[in-house]
Amino acid sequence: MTDVSTLATGVNLVWLLVATFLIFFMKAGFAMLEAGQVRAKNVANQLTQTLVTLIVGFAAYFAVGAPVAALVGELTGSGGFDLAGAFANVYAPADPNAWVTWLFGGVFAIAAANVVSGAVAGRTRPRMYVVYTAVVAGVVYPIADGLVWSGGWLAGMGFHDFAGGAVVHALGGTSALVAAYLIGPRQGRYDDDGSPNVMPGHSITLAVLGTLILCFGWYGFNVGTAVHVFTLQDGHIALGDFATVGRVALDTTLGMVFGGVGAGAVAYYRTRKLDTLYLANGLLAGLVCVTPVADVAAWPGALALGLLGGAQLPIVFDFVEHRLRIDDVCAVFPVHGTAGIIGTLAYPFVAVSGFSLHALGVQLLGVAVVVGLSTAVTAVLFTVATAADWARVSADDEYEGLDVTQHGVETYPEFGDHDSVPGRPAADGGRPASEIELVMAYIRPDRLSEVKQALAEVGAPSLTVSNVSGRGSQPAKEGQWRGEQYTVDLHQKVKIECVVADTPTEDVVDAICRGAKTGRKGDGKVFVLPVTAATQIRTGKTGTDAV
Fold it and tell me: Distance from the CA of 277 to the CA of which of 13, 20, 271, 502 falls in 20 to 30 A?
């Protein structure tokens, strides 16, 4: 005979693990979304920050975060204090399946820490992010968790935050704003008169793919928070939190979709263009806005919250950028901060149980406590770190890019080893070079591989490649990055330099043209310049022997 208690426990554990894995997969979304919104020279740094959040965040939450949450819940709730018990429940629980709950809390902790990295991108030292992640995952988030979800003071008052609108997103979003303010804007972000300069990220593709991964993982956040699929009633299995899981799923989807509608509509009204990045960020803002009330909101309320969360995004970002002059690289504060605050405060207005003035007061108090906690800790941490020169990289390192200066890697090493055709001899025929010449070409970046192949085929393996930007006959265009207009008159090109001595110059020119040609404007140009002298440094040979 089946033990219904064992069956219910097993199903609940499996569901909780699936939801946890979905939230864990959101790390890939964070990595891609943030990497797409920074410049190419800082992509590896941003990816490294995501890895640091994972490593340091889990370690800090295991070491002190989970026990702190339990202790805060006891101290401010029941009034008890069992220090040994709090740590024992993490390190040696009576039931080893309790570690599933620990892991579920851990992915929420690293999500809260990860929110901040996008705001301070492009100028923060990796060691500063290690320290900040440890503080958020080990102290700040656990205190908020203890007050709200682990039976603490705010929970006793009736504060409602279903899946982290305040505890995760408002906490992380306000921390991000404070950190970005204290660490200062990127070099060149603002002119002397305070007017902002647009610094587009390097890949809309990564940003959109990262957004879609986050949207997928969000079902783990919201639907997964309905942890108990089954409960036992009089020895029989009954639906637990899943009694209303359909509402959670629908509200989550409506918040996401209409967040995109709200952000897209406001952005289009302001610029008369359907802004890709605002659409992507709007989906996330709508999700954040509905997260704290997804279990209780009637569907019209979820729809309205999605619209509101998305619509406020362009307005708040513009205020932060132009009025406050804070360089929030990935629009973290309007996506997570204000959207989380709005959604949490909306609880009394959208709940199916109806409006309550008392509930509104409790929500206001709870948001103030969580935001005040994150703001105060972040302000102290970044102020001390800035004074000790721990927070920001040097001006030279920022100019060169954090990938090389902080990590010693290049995210796009496409200008490294040359493709070659093994065993293919140098081409015969054509006019032998009577002197040393420099063949210099400017081509489309995506044609580099074809050009290298063509040059190898004509026996011209000597090659220098550099990444440049410039303009020729291509007309200037108007670009847009998160609603801001800017002129695109410098186009990305690859510069190829090939010194020719024995290989016929015409063959080299023809090879470049053959490999680079697409038939569209912007294919580039080839120039041939005389070289008056050449010396090989190692041997001292000169002239054609040096080449």
Answer: 20
